Amino acid sequence: MWIDTHCHLDAPEFDADRAEVIQRARDAGVGLLVIPAVSPATFGTARAAAMQCGGAYALGIHPLYVRDTPEQEALAGLAQALQAWRDDPRLVAVGEIGLDYFVPDLQDEGSKALQERLYVAQLELAVAHGLPVILHVRRSADGLLKHLRRLREAGRPVPGGIAHAFNGSEQQAMAFVELGFKLGFGGAMTFDRALQIRRLAASLPDGALVLETDAPDIPPHWLYQTAEARAQGQRSRNEPAELPRIAMTLAQVRACTLQQVESLTAANAIRALPRLSALTH
After folding, report:
1. Could you write out the DSSP letters of every residue in 184-241?
2. CA distance 113 to 157
3. Chain-wide mean pLDDT for the chain?
4. Which of 14-28, 49-63, 225-239 is the least confident region?
């Protein structure tokens, strides 16, 4: 079974044909989707999409959405949802959470401080609920690692999870692995010019890798459209059905079979998000 460990199936881009997208994923052999929420406004839609596709969901406040809801209101809403749905077997993680040091609008000191406060508070909630986390990592690996290490040293370790769309250094990658994390690889890996991502995909230990699409985002090279083409109405929407073809790149760079990649990454996904185990049967 293929497992897409990061798919925003609840996004508006899928409103017109969500059922067809789910069927295409099933036809492609993608048996399980993990749908991370990005803000309190999407907690319900992520859960509903997971139920519709028979998949899983995570609850969190994405760093790009930290200004959408007042800080304390957002954290209270997350705490309430985690408590209300704590016994839902489809709730598998706290996420998508993290830090984004790439988007220009979030690089002033106030935005950075807000991102960090929300990230730390959500790590604390994950520890309290015994849930792994799904991390947004964009030019922010060292900042994310700092707080994960601090909690471990305090005797309250975060129970692992996934560093989504990882594109850091090998040293940073191994630091996440040492803390019990898997690293997510998806459409970006399919581009010939993605040399660093491909090097990591080829060299990391077998137990470090999971697959994802981030649909509708991060399309693989065969779906990519330039900004000019998109302005003319051409679509570059990614879908979970693309996962097996994306996986072919991983098989190529690791010199193994597609079946080996399928087995390996599915097993790693379950290790990263243990509640997935009950959903795979």
Report:
1. EE-GGGGSTT-HHHHHHHHHS-GGGEEE---BTSS--TTT---HHHHHTT------GG
2. 22
3. 96
4. 225-239
Whole-angstrom CA distances from 179 to 37, 93, 271 are: 23, 16, 13
Q: What is the pLDDT of residue 224?
A: 87
Confidence of residue 233 (pLDDT cuts 50, 70, 90): low
pLDDT at 232: 66
Give Cα 232 distance to the centre of its chain.
Answer: 30
Give φ, ψ of 201 to 5 degrees: -60, -35
| Domains within the chain, CATH numbers bracketed | 2-279 (3.20.20.140)
Terminal alpha carbon distance of the chain: 10
The verdict on pTM exceeding 0.90 is yes
Q: How many residues appear in the chain?
A: 281
Detail the DSSP E strand segments found in 1-106.
2-4, 30-36, 56-59, 91-100
**Contact predicate 140/98, CB 8 Å:** yes
What DSSP character marks residue 7? B
Q: Give the C-alpha separation, 183 to 228, whole Å.
A: 32
Strands (E), the chain: 2-4, 30-36, 56-59, 91-100, 133-138, 161-164, 181-185, 209-211
SS3 6: coil
The residue assigned the tokens 């909690």 is: 151
Given a contact cutoff of 8 angstroms between Cβ atoms, the answer to whether 210 and 3 are in contact is yes
